[in-house]
Amino acid sequence: MQSPFNGIRRVALTAAVILAAATAAYGHHGWSWTQDGFFELRGKITAIYIGNPHATLDVDAEGEVWRVDLAPPSRTIAAGFTEEVAKVGDEVTAIGHRSRDETEKWMKASRIIVNGKTYDVYPDRVPPA
Amino acid sequence: MDELLAGIEQLVLVRALKASFVAYPIVNALHIMSIGALLTSVWLMDLRVLGAFCSLPYAAFVALMRRTAFAAFAGALVTGSLLFSVRASEYAAMPIFLTKMTLILLAGANFLVFMRVCRARGVEVPAGGVVTVLAVLSLVLWTSVLFAGRFIGFLN
């Protein structure tokens, strides 16, 4: 019987390689994947999703479609932003942080302004007044 | 295909799950529980096949682990389908999601080959080069499924 530990070592190595390859491209959860400075995006809403795991907007800004992450639905709705207050085609200003990888048209917003109303989905992370 | 995925998102149960504050985290937790049990039983089973824990009777131990793995996989399948359903078209377009599904199919195929090899040999404790390779493949594939699954939440 061959020792199982050659196999185990191989598995550990594979796992380490996957982990190393993947940490270069992490994002989405939390704010670690975004730049430190504030970022503002203006455009037209092309899609609204308010649901789990978190709400998103798709925004057309000068012909480029951006993905704007908002908060989980509980927090987004608590901030007053629901499917009733915005529709596809509305102008939106999203304020937050864009991805560190600037080739991605992707940001996470703490504040959005639609139809003259401001919704702070992450009130503790909005720019100082 | 696009219509089917959009249709899934419109199911009453799925719409409720999409908007719920409680059900979604619960389904999420049950998915984690299922994959935890699945990975644990797969690892223990494959290590036993590879010759670890020799003091435990092979047939009884492997049978228990296999039953646990099947139950856990069923749980992961149900809860995973529910998590998928809320944004079906979004996930279906993600390379990392398709990678995970492919890895699951490969792991399943690997299991079927292992069963065939064991049956063909008809011995009580299968061992040797092919069996070792299949058991290591099983560990690598199922562990990769776990990693790929976790990265669905982190890549767009």
Automatic annotation (TrEMBL), chain A:
<protein>
    <recommendedName>
        <fullName>DUF5666 domain-containing protein</fullName>
    </recommendedName>
</protein>
<dbReference type="Pfam" id="PF19649">
    <property type="entry name" value="DUF6152"/>
</dbReference>
<feature type="signal peptide">
    <location>
        <begin position="1"/>
        <end position="27"/>
    </location>
</feature>
<keyword id="KW-0732">Signal</keyword>
<dbReference type="InterPro" id="IPR046150">
    <property type="entry name" value="DUF6152"/>
</dbReference>
UniProtKB/TrEMBL annotation, chain B:
<keyword id="KW-0472">Membrane</keyword>
<feature type="transmembrane region" description="Helical">
    <location>
        <begin position="127"/>
        <end position="152"/>
    </location>
</feature>
<keyword id="KW-1133">Transmembrane helix</keyword>
<feature type="domain" description="DUF6644">
    <location>
        <begin position="28"/>
        <end position="154"/>
    </location>
</feature>
<dbReference type="InterPro" id="IPR046586">
    <property type="entry name" value="DUF6644"/>
</dbReference>
<dbReference type="Pfam" id="PF20349">
    <property type="entry name" value="DUF6644"/>
</dbReference>
<feature type="transmembrane region" description="Helical">
    <location>
        <begin position="47"/>
        <end position="64"/>
    </location>
</feature>
<feature type="transmembrane region" description="Helical">
    <location>
        <begin position="69"/>
        <end position="86"/>
    </location>
</feature>
<feature type="transmembrane region" description="Helical">
    <location>
        <begin position="92"/>
        <end position="115"/>
    </location>
</feature>
<feature type="transmembrane region" description="Helical">
    <location>
        <begin position="21"/>
        <end position="41"/>
    </location>
</feature>
<protein>
    <recommendedName>
        <fullName>DUF6644 domain-containing protein</fullName>
    </recommendedName>
</protein>
<keyword id="KW-0812">Transmembrane</keyword>
